[in-house]
Design goal:
Elements (H helix, E strand, L loop, with lengths): L3 E5 L3 H10 L5 E5 L11 E4 L4 E4 L5 E2 L3 H10 L5 E2 L5 E6 L4 E6 L25 H7 L7 H4 L4 H15 L8 H10 L10 E4 L3 H15 L3 E3 L6 E5 L2 E6 L4 E3 L5 E4 L3 H8 L12 E10 L8 H6 L1 E5 L5 E5 L2 E6 L10 H16 L13 E12 L3 H5 L11 E3 L12 H14 L7
Helix pairs in contact: 1-7, 1-12, 2-7, 2-12, 3-6
Length: 432
Amino acid sequence: MAGILHIIGGGMAGLAAAVDVAGTGTRVIVHEAGRTCGGRARSYHDRHLDCRIDNGNHLLLSANSTVFRYLGITGALDTLSGPGEPIFPFVDLAEDARWTLDLSRGRLPLWVFQPHRRVPDMRLPELQSLYRLIRADEQTTVADCLLPGAFTRRLLEPFSISALNTLSDTGSAALLGAVVRESLSLGGHACVPWFARDGLSESLVDPAVAYLGTMNAEVRTQTRITGLDVAKGRVTALHTAQDSIALSEHDRVIVATTAPVAEGLLSQHMAGLMTPNAFESILNLHFRLADAPRPVGSFAKCGFMGVIGGVTEWVFLRGNILSVTVSAANRYAKHDHEELARIIWSELRSACDAVLEQPLPPTPDAQRIVWEKRATFAATPEQNRRRPGSATPLINLALAGDWTNTGLPATLEGAMRSGLHAVQALGLKTPS
């Protein structure tokens, strides 16, 4: 008998595991505590803005093979938007400079020898920073690897903060090095940027739930697993507030919740379970305008822009909504939210007016601040050592989540990869 795979948590890790197993002969049931799946990568209707927004902004790279495999299986590849080439527009507010990073399509980094394609004022010896990151050990921080100069300030620093959601003076160089190995070191073909055209749910959640339905998998929302029973080294029952679900000897469980929830469920059954216990926040601001801005140049081609020299880090334009992402946002936790919004809107006007047909108004029509207080684990060397693997002492239970030991920081790619690792740890599929 194939049994049932119970997946606790319908975020990206849980959905990736469900999609991977559905249709293989094993029945799949996803238990999601919230009203909808998606976790930190979902869309919803905001009453104040009176429009649909994402709870965060996620930029994919073509190197994210696990994500693109998932999108291919669920039929969602055509829901993405991007320039179709490895280009990244930037503005430096502190030094009033603009450029578009234009990476070489092949593996040879020819772009570094062409001033109009590279970071302005960078010096070629600064590329040693990349070599240091790739070779960094588990104790090294990102700051230990970065050489001073324009290449660090205008590319590696913002890249590091976005990838790790942790400042470079404490961020793990080994984790950032893993990202560099899987993207920039492979050449421009691995660095083509993509993002959800209409919304995160429209790309990452809704197609997956629909696919699971066609595969006779079951997604149970508003179903919180409150506890589990263990006997003779295996999970024997799951508990909700309403009832209990008995498990047969053929059934398996993947816990794909956040780290604190997983620890709460499992600590009494798994002595010594260690999970990350320090977290970083992400600040997102969504500004609605009466009329959709009309971008020009590379901003129009990409739909996003990197911002340096301010609080703002990334700007995404979707219709009449300008969205801003600020990573590693614990540093701003004590700031007044409305004052932060005013500062960021002022930065947006400075950053965007030169690349819009018409300048932005003095104030937006409406705005929404979305602050994810525990968006990711703090990607420090210490916290990275606290990440458990997928396999557990319980023979029919595995762990998934971007906080598990994927070898990557807490990204969409890492989350989905963890779901596949959990499936393999349970023996449901072998590594491809």
